[in-house]
Amino acid sequence: MPFFKRQRQANPPQLQSFILEPILTPSGLVDGPDDGAPDLDLAADIVLPEDSELLPDLDIPEADEALLEDIEPLTYFAEPAVEQIEYTSGVFTVGETGQVEFDFLFDGGKYKGELGVFSLTGMEQFEPGSEDFIQEAARRALSGTEDGHVVISDRYEGAKFSGDLGEPKDWNTGEYWQDKPAFTMRSGDQFGLIFVPNGSMEQVWENPDIGGSKAPLFSMSTANPDDFFHMGRLLM
After folding, report:
1. What is the DSSP annotation of 108-121?
2. Strands (DSSP E) along the chain, which ranges?
3. Backbone dihedral region of 11: left (phi > 0), alpha (psi from -120 to 50 degrees) or beta?
4. Which of 28-37, 48-57, 202-211 has the lowest mean pLDDT?
5. Is the per-residue pLDDT at 25 higher than 60?
């Protein structure tokens, strides 16, 4: 009787399964107060080649001088020239010392105004009589620098001479400043006068379009009949 050896049953195949969880990359993480994650060293993942082959220098041919002579240079438009204002009177020139002095001799009216001086250098960029021109003139007078000064303030000082001076009464009030100091402007510079009949220089600077008795008058005059200064707004 033959014997049969019982074969062992083969092990059944084992199935391995994995549960995959999403892994967030650094670009998908939201910064929190302290997530404890270590800083990533991105530079360590970048592998630079040890030997880099350099491209040879380009051989740029020199330009032919004959061709360069045929090139016509470009013409640039020059900036428009600023028209210079030619004053016929009412303009004063600072002497070599740069020292300027004013004296308040008499007060011939009841208005309480202010007289200022301002440098004419650079004023050609403003249209004469415009708000910009008036405001800049007042600003220079208020600056107390080489650009200008307020030289007489009738509200706070009196004139040297008193009397009716052809007026119904003596309008002179206040103390005469006998030792009024000189001030400095640029030697050789030209300046004009700005007079506020019944107001202050600061009011004109704040509102250059101010009218009435506070509207400023200027010493300069021109020969142009269409010019703001043609009539000579301030009698000298």
Report:
1. -SS---EEEEEE-T
2. 87-89, 92-93, 99-100, 114-119, 148-153, 183-184, 190-196, 217-218, 221-222
3. beta
4. 28-37
5. no
Query: d(Cα 118, Cα 121) in Å, to the nearest integer?
Result: 9
Handedness of CA 23, 26, 27, 29 (dihedral sign): positive
Question: Is residue 106 classed as helix, strand or coil in its secondary structure?
Answer: strand
Question: Tokens for 169?
Answer: 């009464």
Under 8 Å CB-to-CB from 129, ≥6 apart: which residues? 228, 229
Q: What was the pLDDT predicted at 229?
A: 62
Are the C-beta atoms of 202 and 174 separated by less than 8 Å?
no
Model confidence at 92: pLDDT above 90: yes
139 with 206: CB under 8 angstroms? no
**Residue with structure tokens 């993942």?**
45
Domain locations in the chain? 87-222
State the amino acid at position 45 in one-letter form.
D
